[in-house]
Amino acid sequence: MVRGEPSDPEAAEQTAELLALGGARRDERRRTEQRFHADLIELIEQAAPPAALATRLRTAGLDPTGPLLVLTALTRGALRPWDLAADLAESVLDESPETRTVVAGGEHGLTLLVSPGPTLADTTLADLLDERLARFEAAAEGGRIAFGLGAPATDAAGLARALEESRLAARLAALRPARLSLITARALDSHLLLLAGVPADIRATYRRRLLGPLQEYDAEHGADMVHTLTVFLEHNGAWRTTATALHIHVSTLHYRIGRIQQLTGRDLSTARDRVDLYLACAIDKG
């Protein structure tokens, strides 16, 4: 998803709109509810007996017979970060009137438990939220909010898995350079899962060792070798498709890839070197 950089007046307008989302919710009542529902999250974490968990879900106004969705938000540096995260999510959920939502805060971030209405599948929620995040990306300067959406739980017993998936997905989303980002459970079987388990300093060292020569070349010559390599690998080394995506001639792409191989000492015709470089390109640039 390409996210444009609006002018300052536009960013200011977006910021005002972002802060106004769900305005009536941003009060002490919400924070009281978040603390009240923290015990529900603990019951899910502890794999409480299904009957007891189902009773607590009903008390919270959720349907324990499923489906149930779990959305985790990790925040950093934003003004009233939990409020903004809840506003962003609930402004999407409000579009489905029959949806019921519980918001709880704790050491693992903000957690939303959702009994979706008949029109709100997990894919629909993901698409709507991703669209909303793209819209307000520029307004989130100075803070970051990373969302993770677990796969639907068909009953109360499946909530522990969905909760863990949502937290892992949120940690993966936090690796992205975007200020507002979302990853769903569908991404958890990809290379991102491997990267999420690697300490940040090791990820940074790995990226620097493999891509450092390209970054230096780009800085000295005003080139775009790192981006060229990323697009090339994302298109599985397909020359014409990559050239089209980069809006350059195939012969220009051949020159750039040859230069990239010289600078990195890697052979992009081999699977091993492609994998190494692909992982380096996937690591957060921020």
Quick summary:
Helix content is 55%, strand content 12%. It is α+β, with helices and mostly antiparallel strands and 286 residues long.
Descriptive overview:
The protein is α+β, with helices and mostly antiparallel strands and 286 residues long. It has 2 domains: 8-187, 2-Layer Sandwich (Alpha-Beta Plaits); 200-282, PucR C-terminal helix-turn-helix domain (Arc Repressor Mutant, subunit A). Helix content is 55%, strand content 12%. It has a 5-stranded mixed beta sheet, with helices on both faces. Helix 10 packs across helix 12 (250-264) and helix 10 packs across helix 13. It is elongated.
CATH topology of the largest domain: Alpha-Beta Plaits
CATH architecture of the largest domain: 2-Layer Sandwich
Compute the CA-based radius of gyration: 22 Å
Largest sheet: 5 strands, mixed
CATH hierarchy class name of the largest domain? Alpha Beta
In terms of per-residue confidence, which ranges show pLDDT below 50 for 5 or more consecutive residues?
A: 1-7
Helicity range of the residues? Answer: 40-55%
Number of helices: 13
Q: How many beta-strand runs?
A: 5
Which band does the percent of strand residues land in?
5-15%
Biggest sheet: strand arrangement: 2-3-1-4-5
Report, as a whole number of angstroms, the end-to-end distance. 17 Å
Order of helices and strands: HHHHEHEEHEHEHHHHHH
Shape: elongated
How many domain units? 2
| Class from helix and strand fractions | alpha+beta
What is the residue-averaged pLDDT? 82
What is the element layout, followed by pairings?
Layout: H1 8-20, H2 28-36, H3 38-45, H4 50-59, E1 69-76, H5 81-93, E2 100-106, E3 109-115, H6 122-136, E4 144-149, H7 159-173, E5 180-184, H8 191-196, H9 200-221, H10 225-234, H11 239-246, H12 250-264, H13 271-282
Parallel strand pairs: 4-5
Antiparallel strand pairs: 1-3, 1-4, 2-3
